[in-house]
Amino acid sequence: MRDPALASVRSTSAPGHHVVLFDGECPFCTQSAARLERFARRGALQKLNFHADGVLEQFPGITHAACMRAMHVVTPDGRVHVGAAAIVQALRTRPFLGSFALVYYVPGIRFLADLVYDVVADSRYRLFGRAPHATCRDGLCSLPRVTPRKDRQ
Q: Running DSSP on this structure, what letter comes out for residue 11?
């Protein structure tokens, strides 16, 4: 059974624009969020490091533990998408890429994309290191082992 602390919400406060909540202590995540911002429609996305003070308070129900598990995208109306589905939602801000991103929902593709996302997310510090400014929380400098997400949206 999954740890309830890792469960993500389906909706939160509506920011009025797309928001990407990413792990700013992970160089790979930071680069990926920047790349996602470049692929999205200009000005459509706001990147926020969820470790920064006050960020998660803007989005009730989204926990630090859930963000440590996967990137989150909050749509303008407050819907929350997690992991590979978050990437798809960010790409949907651009007409051509959005149409291409819908391939994610083809049976089998979503399963594989989610699996690859989960493996990379679970190993990101081991594979890509930590940012030099990163701080350890509660004496931990690595990701906790978690069971695969079952709450696909």
A: B
Question: pTM for the complete prediction?
Answer: 0.79
In which order are the strands placed within the sheet that holds 45-49? Answer: 45-49, 18-22, 72-74, 80-82
**Checking phi first, is residue 150 left (phi over 0); if not, alpha (psi -120 to 50) or beta?**
alpha
Average pLDDT over residues 81-105: 89
Looking at 3.40.50, 2.60.120, 3.40.30, 3.30.1050, the CATH number of the domain 4-128 comes to 3.40.30
The first and second tokens of residue 81, run together, are 């998408």
- pLDDT at position 136, please? 52
Annotate 110-147 with DSSP letters as a single string: HHHHHHHHHHHHHHHHHHH---TT---BTTB-SPPP-P
